[in-house]
Structures are given as structure tokens and as C-alpha cells.
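Quick one, C-alpha cells below:
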């Protein structure tokens, strides 16, 4: 195929050919001296004009025109040899031949004169980034050693400053935004933590929370103390994985849920089961570790369940520290795991510590070493819970610029001695037999309350409540049955346990009903009442009476 003839048929080919024909200059016209465009003439010649080399460029003229600030100093006193037009426009006219300390005060204000000495001594360039000058602009200064004499004997420094004001202002705006976000997260975090810890009768408690340093975003550490009634107390500490406002918001939801679930008076592992499902619903990609523990002064133990959290540490009265390692399940939000409960002794004179990983975890240290350091610090820590709390934080090296949040909860079960012990008393009676157990229980309660020197009206209310709780247990419960009376410095607690796990509820009795009024009477006369299932099976029904303040 003839490609030349074929291409001539393409659209526009004829027009382009005609255009070339019209602009072709004939030999005759060129001979007549017809004008030729200069550009066309340059293209037709074989000789290109010479391009000046770098060595032939006038250096001073180049430095005078560059937008960067340029100054040249020489000698040990850094006498000014040259400043370019940009430098003069930024700082004004500068006298030549004068020492830089006098002639270039802006460099002295920025602390660059020692840098000039370093450059002279080392013969190496030095750079300082983003220094703000007196004119409000920010510059990055580079100081380079040069030879300022023809014979190569003069040592000087070339100062080259680039204006980075826009970058510095953008970086400052970014830092201000990060500070604002961090302050918002810290404020949210602190507002979601308990503003005042509840004060159980049998425990002394203190807690501390310290956010990470300014370079670390706020995490989701939290703690709480919840009085359950009947002398029992729930203690919670947790850590939401992640940082910032989102972690703090998730923490707030979990803490609120824990308080709601605690009111159900469930075993610790059942509370964590409920929290696990809730954490998945809040955010499927968010997980959290948590320990939920319950202290019952009658049992002298801490019943707990852990969802991937660090072990509770307990120091007994002699100073020996026990680590409650097991059982531990996966973090909340993973789903599909059945948590279990464990226990650790917490008798009179004991101190327990619940904490988050920010207290013991270090980048250059194994986690077990951090926990061992905490054990050693706890073994020698004495004093009030707040003193112990502060001492542990200091001993573990937590400072204001720590790289992670830290939450610590310290609880003590004080050993009561002397007059104080008279305010904390216990009495118990096994309810054996049938209906004849009711009068024995009333007589027992009357004798105990009399010996505890309660006023007459409180004595009568206590006996009435005991009678109704025992009658309810005899009618609806199963053996073994037990009556327990307990007094603290603030309240009288009456509790009846039996082997049936059916929990009573308060209901309205009709006028013709012969039953259903016992719990209603107890709820009316007592300050509070409740019921829960006991770990070994069965239930406990209790009520409380607040003691008059003296």
C-alpha cells in the first residue's frame, strides 16, 4: 500500500499541505532580500549563541537578587563583610566591618553567635530551624564556613536564612489545634470519672488519675467505687484501648453501664458478660480491659473477675504481697467468652491496689518487671490510701510528661481496735427447725440490739424487720437458713440467707390477701433493702437502717 497516497486522503491533510505551500519562501524572493523572521533565521543556522558558564556569573549580583537573607562575616569577631538586599529589607542597613554582635543584633537575640563559633572551629555547616526574629518573621538559618581572602588564609561564615513564616504559622496552628483537642479530651475524661468517691463503711479508698504528657493523647482509663448495700462494695478499674475523645466517650458509656449492672447485684463474672456484649454494640472495633471486684466484710475476701486486665495486688498486715493472677479472660468487646470469678483474701489490715497499664508498662522493660516493681513499692507502702496511692505513682517514675494515662485505685480494710472496734460488730444465728425458728430469731435480734445499746425506736424497727425477713425465708426458702446482724459506725444491717435462689420482689397486696406484705413492710420501715443470689446457690435478703449521727 502507498502510505503517502493513503495519508493524503485523511481529513485535514490537504489544508496542512496548502498552508505549508503558502508559507514557503522561493529562492528568487530570498535572493531579492525578502525579510526572514528572526526566529526562523535562528533555527536555520547551525551555530548556537554561547551560554555563560557558572564560573563567569557575577556572584554578588546573584546574591543581591535572591529572596533569601544572605550575610557574610569573617574572622573570630565575625566582622560583617556583606549583607544582601533581602537582609537589608528585613532588618535595615547594617554597617560593614563591624563585629556581628554589634552590627547584627538580630543574630545575637536568636543565640546564633555561638553557632558561628562552632562553624569556624569545626569547618562544618550548621542549621537551626524556624527561629522567630524581632520582625515577626520566622527563618531557618544555615551557616556555612567559607574562605574570604584571596590567599586562602581568611576564615569566614556565610549566613543563609530562608523565610519559613508560612510553614511555622501552619505548624503552630496545628499544635494549637492538637492542644485544643487534648484539652477537650482531658476535660471529657475527668468529667466522666467520679468527682467524689463513695465511702463504704468498712473500706478506706483513694484514687488518682493522671493523663499522659502533652505529646500523648488522652486514653480511656477509668475507675469507680459503688456501694451495693448490705455492707458490700463494688470496685472497678478499666482501660479503653485507643486515645482521644473517642476513647474517653466509650469509657464514659462503659462506666455508666457498670454502675447500672452493679445495681443488679450480680456476681462479678456476670457483670463482665453484660459489659462484653455492650462493648461490642458500642463499637465493634473498640476493646477495653476491666476488673470488677466485690468486697464483702463478712467473708473477708475480694471476689473479682478480670477481662484482660492486669492482676490485683493485695498486701496483708505483715507486708507480704499477693498477686491475683487467675482467672483472666479476654478484653471486653471480643465476644464469645465465658468469664469466671476468682477470689483473693482481704482481711483486716490489708491493702489492695487496682491499676492500669500506664503505671507499670515501659517501652524498654518487660511488663512483668513493671508489676514486680509495683509489688516491691507496695510492700513498703504504709499510711492512708491517698498516701499509698501517691507513693506508688512516684515509686514507678510517673511524671507530668509520662507517655500514657495512669489510673490507680487503692483500698484498705482497716483493722479495728479499741473503741473503734465497738462500732463494728457482728452477730449470727443458724435458723434450725420449722416455724419455731421465728420467735427464736426475734428474741435473738432483741437481745443483740439491746446489747449494742440502740435507741428504743431503732430497736423495735430492727426486731420487726428481722421478724418479716425470717418469716419470708421460712415460707418461701429452703434450708440452710441463717440470720446475720451487723452494725457499723453508720448503719444497722439485717440479712437472712437460705438455699432457694428465687429472689423476692415487692408487690402490692390486695385487702383480702393473707401474704405478700412482708417485703413491703421491710421496704417501708428500712432505709434500703435488696436481694441477691449467693455464689454457692441460694439467696440473701437484706435491709439497712441508717444510725442517727452523733
Amino acid at each position: 500500500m502507498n502510505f503517502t497516497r493513503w495519508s493524503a486522503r485523511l481529513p485535514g491533510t490537504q489544508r496542512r499541505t496548502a498552508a505549508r505551500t503558502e508559507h514557503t519562501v522561493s529562492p528568487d524572493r530570498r535572493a531579492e532580500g525578502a525579510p526572514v523572521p528572526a526566529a526562523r533565521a535562528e533555527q536555520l543556522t547551525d551555530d548556537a549563541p554561547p551560554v555563560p558558564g557558572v564560573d563567569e556569573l557575577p556572584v554578588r549580583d546573584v546574591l543581591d537578587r535572591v529572596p533569601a537573607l544572605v550575610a557574610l562575616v569573617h574572622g573570630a569577631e565575625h566582622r560583617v563583610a556583606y549583607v544582601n538586599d533581602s537582609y537589608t529589607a528585613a532588618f535595615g542597613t547594617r554597617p560593614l566591618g563591624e563585629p556581628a554582635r554589634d552590627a547584627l543584633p538580630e543574630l545575637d537575640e536568636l543565640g546564633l553567635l555561638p553557632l558561628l563559633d562552632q562553624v569556624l572551629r569545626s569547618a562544618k555547616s550548621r542549621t537551626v530551624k524556624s527561629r522567630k526574629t524581632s520582625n515577626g518573621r520566622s527563618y531557618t538559618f544555615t551557616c556555612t564556613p567559607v574562605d574570604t581572602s584571596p590567599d586562602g588564609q581568611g576564615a569566614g561564615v556565610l549566613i543563609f536564612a530562608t523565610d519559613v513564616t508560612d510553614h511555622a504559622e501552619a505548624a503552630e496552628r496545628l499544635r494549637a489545634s492538637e492542644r485544643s483537642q487534648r484539652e477537650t479530651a482531658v476535660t471529657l475524661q475527668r468529667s466522666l470519672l467520679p468527682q467524689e468517691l463513695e465511702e463504704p463503711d468498712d473500706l478506706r479508698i483513694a484514687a488518682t488519675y493522671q493523663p499522659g504528657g502533652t505529646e500523648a493523647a488522652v486514653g480511656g482509663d477509668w475507675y469507680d467505687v459503688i456501694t451495693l448495700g448490705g455492707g458490700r462494695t463494688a470496685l472497678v478499674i478499666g482501660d479503653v484501648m485507643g486515645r482521644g475523645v473517642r476513647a474517653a466517650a466509650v469509657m464514659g458509656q462503659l462506666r455508666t453501664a457498670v454502675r447500672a449492672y452493679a445495681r443488679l447485684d450480680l456476681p462479678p463474672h456476670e457483670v463482665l458478660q453484660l459489659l462484653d456484649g455492650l462493648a461490642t454494640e458500642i463499637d465493634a472495633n473498640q476493646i477495653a480491659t476491666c476488673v470488677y471486684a466485690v468486697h464483702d466484710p463478712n467473708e473477708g475476701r475480694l471476689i473479682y473477675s478480670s477481662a484482660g486486665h492486669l492482676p490485683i495486688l493485695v498486701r496483708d498486715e505483715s507486708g507480704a504481697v499477693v498477686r491475683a493472677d487467675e482467672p483472666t479472660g479476654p478484653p471486653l468487646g471480643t465476644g464469645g467468652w465465658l468469664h469466671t470469678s476468682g477470689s483473693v483474701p482481704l482481711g483486716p489490715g490489708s491493702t489492695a491496689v487496682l491499676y492500669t497499664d500506664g503505671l507499670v508498662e515501659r517501652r524498654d522493660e518487660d511488663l512483668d518487671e513493671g508489676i514486680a516493681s509495683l509489688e516491691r513499692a507496695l510492700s513498703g507502702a504504709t499510711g492512708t490510701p491517698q498516701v499509698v496511692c501517691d507513693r506508688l505513682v512516684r515509686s514507678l517514675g510517673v511524671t507530668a510528661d509520662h507517655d500514657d494515662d495512669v489510673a490507680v485505685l487503692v483500698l484498705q480494710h482497716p483493722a479495728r481496735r479499741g473503741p473503734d472496734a465497738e462500732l463494728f460488730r457482728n452477730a449470727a444465728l443458724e435458723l434450725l427447725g420449722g416455724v419455731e425458728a421465728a420467735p427464736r430469731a426475734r428474741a435473738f435480734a432483741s437481745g443483740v440490739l439491746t446489747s449494742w445499746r440502740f435507741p428504743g425506736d431503732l430497736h423495735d424497727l430492727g426486731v420487726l424487720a428481722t421478724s418479716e425477713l425470717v418469716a419470708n425465708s421460712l415460707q418461701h426458702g429452703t434450708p440452710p437458713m441463717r440470720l446475720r446482724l451487723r452494725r457499723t459506725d453508720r448503719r444497722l444491717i439485717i440479712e437472712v440467707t437460705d438455699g432457694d435462689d428465687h429472689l423476692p420482689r415487692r408487690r402490692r397486696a390486695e385487702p383480702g390477701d393473707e401474704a405478700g406484705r412482708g417485703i413491703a413492710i421491710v421496704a417501708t420501715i428500712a432505709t434500703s433493702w435488696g436481694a441477691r443470689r449467693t455464689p454457692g446457690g441460694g439467696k440473701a435478703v437484706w435491709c439497712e437502717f441508717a444510725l442517727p449521727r452523733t
